[in-house]
Amino acid sequence: MTMHETRKAPPKGVPFRPRGRSRVRGLTVVRAVAGMAVFALLLFAWELAGRHDTTGLLPPFSDVAAEMAAILTGERLTTDVLPSVLRALLGFALGSVIGMTAGVVLGWWRRLDPWLRPPVEFLRAVPTPALVPIAVVAFGAGNALRVWVIALGACWPVLLNTMDGLRRVEPGYIDSARVYTSGRTTAVLGRAALPAALPQITSGLRIGLALSLILMVISEMIASSSGLGYLILQSQRLYALTPMYAGVLILACTGWLLTLLFSAAERRALVWFEGMKGRNHA
Amino acid sequence: MRSTSPLPTVPPAERHRGRRTWFMLIHVGKGLAGILGLVLLYEGARATGILPRDTIPGAHSIATTAVRELLDGSLTTAAGDTLQAWVLGLAAACAVGVPVGMALGASSWADSLAKVTVEFLRPVPAVALVPVAVVSFGLDIIMQVFLVGFACLWPVLIGTRHGVRAIDPLMIDSARMLGLTRRAVLTRVSLPATLPAIATGVRLAASLGVIVAVAAEIVTGSPGLGQYLTQAQQAGDDAAAFASVLMSGLLGLAVNILFVAAEVRVAGWQQHSTEGRR
Amino acid sequence: MPEAIKGRQHDRQATGPAAATLLEARNIAKCFSHPNGTVTPAIGDIALSLAKGEFVAIVGPSGCGKTTLLRCLCGLLKPDSGTLSYAGKPVSDVPEDVAVVFQEYNRSLFPWLSVRRNVEFGLNKLSKTERRARAEEALTRVHLTDVIEHYPWQLSGGMQQRVAIARAVATQPNLLLMDEPFASVDAQTRIRLETMTASISTELGLATLLITHDIDEAVFLADRVIVLSPRPSSVLAEVVVDIPRPRTELEVKAMPRFQEYRRLIHDLIVAKQSDTPDVVDTPAPDGTEPERSP
């Protein structure tokens, strides 16, 4: 007795791959190219505007690009750019660990909620940039401090999303886990609740990553004598606009690249989620 | 699906007004206890030296300074300045983000065209643009509005686009079948359906806006809580510096509570679905 | 002439094929209290017992707390009062050899796991090869071996529920509890699933407790049907279904006996039903699991 009511099933052994919206593959490529063309057009417009600029405030794109290349191939790569990015990533990693741990505690043991929610909501509302000058005065401006500041700022979206994700787990999954595992908290939490909450958790991680970059820049603008953020600010103060824009672009590219990598990793981890969504949409 | 049942079916055993108020009081009490716990933790860290006692003031002095500064006006003015930049920036972000987001959501061609540009601009930290903004606009409030606006634009735009794309085509079909004109479908079906997503986007943007506004003030020295902070530090008045941090936190909290309430109002009818995560 | 044994069963051993009593419940009651202070009684006073290998169905009107009862019986929910013992021992959490098939398959099968992994979920203690073997065996029983690497949400409702049954059966339980398993499935599929359940239950000699609102289903599948009153529920009557096995759907439903049982149970329920208004899902009460509509 077989009931052939499945959707188009992938061949055996092949993991499920979510389809894009356009049915025809060719069309997707055309669209991608068109998008890039628009972007290139904007850069071209920048170039023109820069060439004809009389105020001296907008260097043409080609100059900026050249400066970018110079920075990335010169010594500033290892003295400024890479350490900044590394600090941001370290802070993000640290913040994620803190955020997820605290998020699991707050999200799973709901009895604590009325007690812990108000202080958590307050702490998270404090703008982390405001803590940077204070932290500098209190602890001195060192590498460790900057990483910690980034971590403590970036942990909030991770914490809140982990907490939220765990709370919104379908009770049915929890019930099934209680029936089919030993029933201990670690089993139910680890085998059912966390996988179910993963989409929400990665959403928080993504926001945390963006926040790490922001905090990295801020901490360097306020309290540093090296790094990408410092480079940008210093250039502005010296009215050296080309390196300033170059720095901003490098930062933008780094952010874009990291986000891309993150999205790719997220998609692999959440193949099932994409599939489910696709089904609901279709 | 959970609809709050307005009635218990069997004549309830107890239903005192008093009992309900008691429950609420307990709830609030727990929250206050939590906050008190936080303060105790803070003081404990100071006492043990984890937080250096000479540069980090005690909770009591922070509180008294805050109250004093609020009453005599300087902290209040600073808060007002921050709020001003924030409101204008958020409004600008919505004014641009909602229409553009709707356009991107409705037309998949427009979306494809804009995709690369949006994906590139989006991760740019607004604070990285502080120098650019200063160079372009000087130290006027327009500079702050630009920064806050740029930062807030993305959550609003992405949220709106997400909302438009998530509209169930079945709803549109049903509306058409019932005889609504295209315009009516837009105003009576699409718009209300998108509103929750827009509300979420605006809420995220609002919180982000406060952070960016304060950060910009710290870096550039333009009027607001951030400037108040750096000035207090330079004057050596740590308690005032902390008071301004406290104020920023309360501001952020108030903004968050306000927008969460607004979002619930707008989106309360919406079922939680997997699509809704953002 | 079929008879309903009215009232409760507390002092009697389980009827049906004489064997050790597997599950014994006495004076089970459960109320839900809400944060705003109201208290909703769900179960009033339930007593029942189940013997090894017995198939018992529980029928009742909508809103009478059937799901709550099932959750108490399997250990997911703690009753306010009464005693509950499984295999002689009091029930605290879900016992090792009890399996449950829930009503909503899309909210109990794990979407991040393939069908195979879902079925293997309860078999963690076994070696990898044993797990695979058991899973395949279970899936063969429910005729689903060709979709073993798919994800549950790629399948239709009937197929998903079969996966849920396979998951339960793979653990080789002594007691199988089913909470309105075929309510969310279309009528034709439901009949096929009922037949499949009957054959699995008989083949494995599995003690089964089925909650349903479908009287036909209850009479077709069960050795004994327990009829519940509206909320706060108690046992109205027990009806022993004296139809020989194996039962085939067409034959059984044509039997006049079947119709009599059906009528009897239907009348019992209807007689009591007129007093109680309908209920929707109640909100999640303070600290306990949310009540789902029974």
Automatic annotation (TrEMBL), chain C:
One of its GO terms (molecular function) is ATP binding. The keyword ATP-binding applies. SUPFAM superfamilies: P-loop containing nucleoside triphosphate hydrolases. SMART domains: AAA. CDD domains: ABC_NrtD_SsuB_transporters. Keywords: ATP-binding, Nucleotide-binding, Transport. It comes from the Bacteria. Residues 275-294 are annotated as: Disordered. The keyword GTP-binding does not apply. Residues 23-255 form the ABC transporter domain. Residues 276-286 have a biased composition (Low complexity). Pfam families: ABC_tran. This is ABC transporter ATP-binding protein.
